[in-house]
Design brief:
Layout: H1 7-10, H2 24-34, E1 38-42, E2 48-53, H3 54-66, H4 75-78, E3 86-87, H5 92-102, E4 106-111, E5 114-120, H6 121-134
Parallel strand pairs: 3-4
Antiparallel strand pairs: 1-2, 4-5
Length: 135
């Protein structure tokens, strides 16, 4: 029965996103302000081009400190370009398996090559809880 529940049914649609041109320290401030650990990086057309995480930001800061540079650069310099995603119509069981098998906390939800949301492990638990209450 849970296979009929889709990622789009429980994904978060209001996302913090960055572009490759976003200033690194502006991105860090947004991660802190919104209490999130990472965000998708999209181009002007909304196509997913990467992901910036807290770990990427820490790596950037350590690199800048090591080279004694004061400029932070831009998100595109430090983001990860290879991003695991799930399709909007993926069933919740498949998404849960992706979390378990790859140790991810959240995944961008895509329709074609456009980011339309994000789903987290907590969203999966919420789907299971809803299903259990209805059953």
């Amino acid at each position: 029965m849970l296979r009929s529940v889709k990622a789009q049914d429980y994904m978060c649609e209001k996302l913090v996103t960055f572009t490759p041109e976003t200033d690194l320290f502006d991105a860090i401030n947004q991660l802190i302000e919104y209490g999130i650990t990472g965000a998708p990086v999209i181009d002007r057309s909304g196509k997913l081009v990467g992901l910036l995480s807290e770990a990427d930001c820490l790596r950037a800061i350590l690199t800048l400190t090591y080279h004694e540079e004061e400029m932070g650069g831009v998100v595109g310099d430090y983001m990860v370009e290879e991003v695991h995603t799930v399709n909007y119509d993926a069933d919740i069981i498949m998404v849960a398996e992706e979390f378990i098998n790859n140790g991810r906390r959240r995944l961008p939800v895509v329709k074609g090559d456009k980011v339309i949301g994000q789903i987290s492990r907590r969203d999966i638990l919420r789907a299971v809880e809803t299903f259990a209450q209805d059953g």
